[in-house]
Amino acid sequence: MILGMSTVNAPTVNAPTVDVDALVDVDEATARERDHRFVWHPWSPVRKDPGDGPILLSGTGYRVRDASGRSYLDAMASAMNSSCGYAHPDLIAAAERQLARLPHFDLSVGTHLPVGAVAERLAALLPGELGRTLFVNSGSEATEAAVRVAHGYWRNLGRPRNRIVTLAAGYHGTTLVAQHLSGLPTNATHAQAPFPVTRVEFPAEPRRLRAPESLAPLAGAFEQAVLDGEPPAAVFVEALVNVGGGVVLPAGFLRALRDLCDRSGALLVLDEVFCGFGRTGRMFGFDHDGITPDLVTMSKGLSGGYIPFAALSTTEAVYRTFADDPLIGGLRYGHTTGGHAVACAVALAVLDVIERRDLVTASAARGRQLLDGLLPLDEHPEVADVRGLGLVATVECHREEFAAVTVARARERGVLLRRQGRAVMAIPPLVIDEAGVNELVDAVGQAVAGN
């Protein structure tokens, strides 16, 4: 009890009780009123009229169902993390089994079986010496860990470096450090900069950027950023720029960065939070250029959206430098639920499904079908570009207003699309089939045409 306070006359709080099983039967108006009154939605405007986004109840495969009973083709992959689709029995069973055995244990004190198994599995998937993995809960936390490791690596060597070089249009999460890496206006922070960041602007518009002739200007801009000023601790980039507009980078760009980092000593950090585990038609986005980074951040598709989970993998050489940390002889970073046993078990099941169903190859094939189907939209006067890589397709509009209308029209036709500014993005679960892609292409085409 807190001194000076008494519980004798404490008021009784009559909190409403909720039967979780009955939630699926609640009427849509009640559910929406409750949501409007109590929920603060991320990345959403605060307004008197909160809007009428779908109230989703369930999902199967690549479709979801709302409170009115309407079914949608989910071309957002939930939060871009539904790799294996909804209601997958293997993922549900893995979570249930581990919950019954051991939900979690503090990994700074002991360990559990699933964490070692999933770390070993990732080491087998990643190239080169990327065999040491730290587990966290989100992509933002993986970014925080990567920056901490990069800074600590140089401190451990006795040659401190703290500058990071990134893409201005890059996005690496929404914690303070993660937002500080980005130059996107929506990620601007109101705190003092914790360390120097050099943000490289695109040398061309997205339509031209993926062309071979854009490689030299983009690589040159990074070379200037790395070589001018104090040597950077790391270069931190996405394999495909997601939130910054669904931008495809020129082939060979990551190979040029690998060479630049080798010459300058900077660590190369690849953000695979969005791209990893088949999204771009390869297991990892950096596989398109055949390179091995020094650190890799991963999340989203790794647990299929079933449970929060993320990882940072690095080399044994980087890991071993932390034995020289003067305070604890290790990494001064961690989270209560990092490496959660249930999340690890689900991740193992996800990797099994990806391998068994060959979803990486499927992503490449269905991605080609999706992009081929959308390319004719490039002739529309409101469309600036159509581009894609694997199961990521972007229809860039000239006006943000038209992009918003296109997304709304597609929803009316039973398809949920993602919008990043002027970019309309189709990012379906990797389990989508040929018929689903045809349905998606048709709905986007009609939405753009206004039919």
Approximately how much beta-strand content do the residues carry?
5-15%
Radius of gyration, CA atoms, in whole angstroms: 23 Å
What is the CATH architecture annotation of the largest domain? 3-Layer(aba) Sandwich
Outline, from the CA principal axes?
Answer: globular
Q: Termini distance?
A: 65 Å
Could you give the order of the helices and strands? HEEEHHHEHEHEHHEHEEEHHHEEHEEEH
Mean pLDDT: 94
User: What structural category arises from helix and sheet content?
Assistant: alpha/beta
Query: What's the helix count?
Result: 14
CATH topology of the largest domain: Aspartate Aminotransferase, domain 2
Largest sheet: 7 strands, mixed
CATH superfamily of the largest domain: Type I PLP-dependent aspartate aminotransferase-like (Major domain)
Pick out the low-confidence regions. Answer: 1-13
Beta strand count: 15
Record the strand order, biggest sheet.
4-10-9-8-7-5-6
Give the % helix: 25-40%
Number of domains: 2
CATH class of the largest domain: Alpha Beta
Protein name: Aspartate aminotransferase family protein
Keywords: Aminotransferase, Pyridoxal phosphate, Transferase
GO molecular function, one term: adenosylmethionine-8-amino-7-oxononanoate transaminase activity
InterPro entries: Aminotrans_3 (IPR005814), Aminotrans_3_PPA_site (IPR049704), PyrdxlP-dep_Trfase (IPR015424), PyrdxlP-dep_Trfase_major (IPR015421), PyrdxlP-dep_Trfase_small (IPR015422)
Give an account of the 3D structure:
The protein is an alpha/beta fold and 451 residues long. The chain folds into two domains: 40-87 and 358-449, Aspartate Aminotransferase, domain 1; 91-356, Aspartate Aminotransferase, domain 2, CATH 3.40.640. Helices cover 36% and strands 14% of the residues. The protein has helices spanning 28-38, 77-80, 89-101, 113-125, 139-156, 176-181, 206-209, 215-227, 253-264, 316-321, 341-356, 359-374, 400-412, 434-449, and strands at 56-60, 63-66, 71-74, 132-136, 164-167, 197-200, 234-238, 267-271, 295-298, 310-314, 383-388, 393-397, 415-416, 418-420, 423-426. The strands form three sheets. It has a seven-stranded mixed beta sheet, with helices on both faces. Strands 1-2-3-13 form a four-stranded mixed beta sheet. It has a four-stranded antiparallel beta sheet with strand order 11-12-15-14. Strand 5, helix 6 and strand 6 (197-200) form a beta-alpha-beta unit. The relative contact order is 0.14. GO terms for molecular function: adenosylmethionine-8-amino-7-oxononanoate transaminase activity; pyridoxal phosphate binding. Keywords: Aminotransferase, Pyridoxal phosphate, Transferase. This is Aspartate aminotransferase family protein.
